[in-house]
Amino acid sequence: MVPLRLAAFTMGYKKSELSASQIVQSAIRVLARQGYARTSLLDIAREAGMSKGAVHYHFPSKESLIQEVLQTALDAVQARTIEAWTSGGDPMSSLRASIEALWEVRASRSDEALVVADLLAQSLYDDSLRPKLAEYYERAATQARDHLTAHLSPLGLRTKVSLDVLPRIIVGLLDGLVMQAFVQEDALVASEIADAIETMATSLIEFGPSK
User: Fold this and answer.
1) Consecutive H or E run containing 69
2) Contact 188/177 with Cβ under 8 angstroms?
3) pLDDT, tens only, 23-76
4) Were 76 and a residue from 29, 112, 148, 154 both cysteine, which residue would form a disulfide, CB within 3.0 to 4.6 Å?
5) Residue numbers of the domain that contains 132
6) How far from the centroid of its chain's Cα atoms is residue 61's Cα?
7) Within this chain, do residues 132 and 31 fall inside the same structural domain, yes or no?
8) Is there a single domain that holds both residue 43 and residue 103?
């Protein structure tokens, strides 16, 4: 009898996990369509095919759900970013490929990218969103720094500015430009953006020991 009860408990726990995941994915879709300000828990419940009470069972407030949504969306964007920095190749072609991939991650208008952009703007007024976003930017900068160090150091190259600063400049440029692309799609061409950022980045590289 005990094993049967344990099995039932385990099945119920897994079902609960699946339900929570379903709610989070539904919330991402709704937020991507209509934004944080226009989204209610009822909207998310309808998208998930659940009652509002079922959503409240897993997430007692919209804010608690948004925290999980933000983490999930950031993880998805981060996974694609990691792929960009580990694309391989010689240093310059790898840098170019990484810049293009990082732009695509942001400009693709995936549900996750849209949610991150929307909640980034929302963080101006909601400081509870800032810690996860700050962690995301820290990880993004660390990935870029590690990539540049691994490719430049063996060739006796270094950056003219701190490797703690250059990655944040690259990421900041891409994030700022993609917001412009959201409001004026035909104003920016991906290849021209990659050319410009690649030119700026390579102009900050010189021979010498790492700083």
Assistant:
1) helix 62-85
2) yes
3) 999 999 999 999 999 999 999 999 999 999 999 999 999 999 999 999 999 998
4) 112
5) 64-207
6) 23
7) no
8) no
Choose among 197, 41, 38, 69: nearest CA to 133: 69
- Among 119, 125, 206, smallest CA distance to 160 is for 206
Per DSSP, what are the bridge partners of residue 206? 158
Give the residue from 60, 77, 102 where a domain finishes.
Answer: 60
Quick one: which of 41, 177, 55, 196 has its CA closest to 105? 177
d(CA 118, CA 109): 11
Q: Torsions phi, psi of 10, nearest 5?
A: -65, -45
120 plus 83 within the same structural domain: yes
CATH number at residue 51: 1.10.10.60
pLDDT tens figures, 62-120: 999 999 999 999 998 888 877 766 666 666 777 777 788 888 888 888 999 999 999 99
Kindly state the tokens that stand for 89: 């190749």
Pairwise CA distance, residues 7 & 16, whole Å: 14
Q: Among residues 76, 161, 162, which one has the least CA distance to residue 114?
A: 76
